[in-house]
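ok new one. same drill as before - structure tokens go in, u give me an amino acid for every spot. 142 of them this time. try not to just spam alanines like last time pls lmao
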């Protein structure tokens, strides 16, 4: 894959690649690998990671955070907005996350957004799929 990218880069320098192909290449270079991110250390950080991953955004504006690492299962609830310039009173979207007790690193067992809960035991196949995708992303972190 690296050889292909290097070849494309060299060809683009020579003007042999159309502009739209170069734009695609540049976009791919700028997308960070999820595995390059640090592993969340707290239930708050892990819940924020779940929200960002589910919404496919790099950053969220976080409002109120309630963390319950001492409960069984440990978890967190928080408000967020995808608009980073949102006023505090407009940071109202909510996510609730639960994690496996004693798991190191943290492993999500259930999360709820927009009145839909996602877990391995979800009845809807699409909800189970979204849950498994988030778990897979969390497992890729170093």
């Amino acid at each position: 894959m690296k050889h292909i990218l290097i070849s494309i880069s060299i060809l683009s320098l020579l003007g042999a690649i159309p502009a739209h192909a170069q734009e695609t290449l540049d976009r791919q270079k700028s997308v960070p690998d999820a595995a390059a991110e640090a592993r969340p250390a707290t239930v708050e950080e892990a819940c924020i990671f779940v929200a960002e991953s589910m919404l496919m955004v790099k950053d969220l504006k976080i409002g109120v955070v309630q963390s319950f690492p001492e409960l069984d299962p440990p978890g967190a609830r928080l408000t967020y907005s995808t608009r980073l310039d949102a006023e505090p009173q407009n940071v109202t979207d909510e996510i609730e996350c639960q994690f496996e007790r004693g798991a190191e690193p943290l492993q999500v067992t259930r999360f709820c957004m927009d009145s839909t809960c996602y877990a391995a035991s979800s009845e809807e196949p699409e909800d189970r799929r979204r849950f498994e995708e988030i778990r897979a992303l969390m497992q890729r972190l170093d």
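DSSP finds four helices and five strands in the chain. and btw Confidence is low (pLDDT under 50) at residues 1-14, 27-36.
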